Amino acid sequence: MRGYSRRGFLGMAGGVTAAGLLAACGSNTGRSSGSGDTIEQWYHAYGEAGVQQAVERYAKAYDKATVHVQWNPGDYDSKIASALAASNGPDVFESTLRVDMVRSKQIVSLDDLLGDARSDFTESVLASHTVDGQVYGIPQSVDMQMLFYRKSMLQKAGLQPPSTVDELIDAAHKLTTNKVKGLFLGNDGGVGVLAGPLLWSAGLDYLTPDNKVGFDDPLAAESVGRLRTLFTSNSLLLGAPADWSDPSAFVQGLTAMQWTGLWTVPAVQKALGDDFGVLPWPALNGAGKASVPFGAYGSMVNAKSKKIDAAKAYVKWLWIERGDYQQDFDLSYGFHIPARKSLAAKADKLKSGPAADAVRFVQDLGKPQNPPPWTAKMQLALSDSLNKIVRSGADATTELKNAAGSVQTELKRLYG
Amino acid sequence: MLIFNYIPIGWSAYLSFFDAQGTVTPDTFVGLDNYADMLTGPFAQSLLTFSVFALFIVPLTFALALGLAVAVNRIRFARAFFRSVFFLPTACSYVVAAMVWKLSLFSGVRFGLANTVLDWFGQDPVAWLSNPDPPWYWVVLVTARLWLQVGFYMILFIAGLQRIPDSLYEAAYVDGAKPGWQVFRHITFPQLRPTSIAVLLLSLIAAYQAFDEFYNLLGTARGYPDFGRPPLVYLYYLALGQTQDYGHGSAGALILALLIALVTLLQGQVLGFGRRD
Q1: Could you tell me if B221 lies within 8 Å of chain A, comparing CB atoms?
Q2: Domains of chain B listed by start with CATH number
Q3: Residue B65 and residue B71 in contact, taking contact as beta carbons nearer than 8 Å
Q4: pTM for the full model?
Q5: Which residue, B9, B3, B5, B89, is CA-closest to B253?
Q6: Strand A277-279 relative to strand A66-72: parallel, antiparallel, unpaired?
Q7: Which residues of chain B neighbour A75 with C-beta distances below 8 Å?
Q8: What's the CA gap between B128 and B134, in Å, rounded?
Q9: Would you say B243 and B15 are in contact if contact means Cβ atoms under 8 Å apart?
Q10: Each residue of B20-52: pLDDT tens digit?
Q11: Which residue of chain A has the CA closest to B242?
Q12: Are A303 and A105 within 8 A, CB to CB?
């Protein structure tokens, strides 16, 4: 039997390792070769099992180009922002739309891709991917947030599901015992996630339709003041092991009500059966409205791509022509609402119970969580102000005025 | 060095004089506006907060590390074991330590370890990291930082202690010095001067460079509170997050670097860094 010398063995091992590394660097679409261009496509890492395999399967099925899918765990939004500022970004990627991406000429208009399908997209969702009348992202799926409540706990306390902010504060107080808190809005007391609903509940918004500051108003101070009331009432759950986006606190009985998202419905149903209902964030007063924030990732094309036409053709094929893939993407793994009305209407999972309520909330009361003109810098200013008011007890009027000043500076930069 | 240090620093200095949002090749010169904005906004507040933090954490780290080093150096049995016990946290990731502190020790629910202890004494649970009034979050931040870094400085002090010749102690005893505080004050502590200065400088710089445990203890998916926000976390959100404001970010980075250099030089001047013994 022939033996191997140490040098021969090391050489062979090195060769195998190099081959492995080269293979790992290659496309993960499974295609051995492709015709035409190679398109680089980025997704953030979805938590649900099977999504990565699904999008790789879609990519593999495209026969006009080779599509290389990159799955990005971690802080995807920052990563894509850096990649777009540099010149090494992907050709196609998913993102929410921000006006500064358009102003910096980082993405191209996809208006010409929509055709007859335009009317099939939920209007508010398509609007969240539109700047200056041009569509820059083809919506892939819709996620939304709402208030979950335990029916049995409310019943035991003799309460009806709250329909106003004051009823919510009262219910949270009455549902609080030494074992269970009345309400969980996140470990920061809801500051991070409720900026929009607080403004909408008072009939206000981040910005006015003509892009002026929308919250420098006594009603905004009053609405944020209600969250301060909740924060100091000892009826909010604070410091839970998992934050608001996870249903653990709700299903483990640490809280009677929780602000969380549509994506938790299957887990909550599994744990609590029918013993829960869902509500929008209630109106503060007659001028305001109940609301649910929604977020929608859309598929976009990098303006620095050398294959813009090929990338646009792929986006059109995947998210406009292949409705079956969008339905599979939205409903076979996680729990999202398809951005296309015709697909949402066909989805059996969304036809009854809290999921059906969620679909109705989005259609009737939905507001984009991150509207395109609202930039990260504006969000940082408002978030600082809400933290000071709600968590540190600063004067609401003064702090909101300070935030309005920062937002105004940013508006001037963007719109002159 | 040129490619990875000097060019980026030079380019950062260049960007700090421009409106460089979303671009590293800006064309709108703004002079010192970015510096003025940073010195009057939340970044200035962050610098002030962390100057106070440095004033507090540096002496505390110094005293604990020195105390542990002296104790471990004196111990006659299982010396290696005790050194390892205190040094091992240094090997722990700041992120992992922050998660343990946040989810287990200082969780705000009634079954968190700290709240369980409070419950034994009939006290209500405390939302350690959520409520800044009273600012219990500093207890969490400071204990995490001490646990993570004291062992490293302890090792530096042990190395310093072992360099002190026995003959000095013998001479002191012959001259009538009493073992304990008198010998420590007149022999050990003066002999540790170079190590002490190094520990003070390193822990001071580390205080201003705080990021990992703060970000993981207080940050959420939707942001970071203004209280307890280190300068680097603010710069991260401003320059490297979605905001991509390289102009203000660069100005802030240079202000922070200058501040660290200034405080370090002042501290070195006061303590005699580089001076001959």
Answers
A1: yes
A2: 29-271 (1.10.3720.10)
A3: no
A4: 0.85
A5: B9
A6: unpaired
A7: 241
A8: 9
A9: no
A10: 887 888 889 999 999 999 999 899 999 999 999
A11: A78
A12: yes
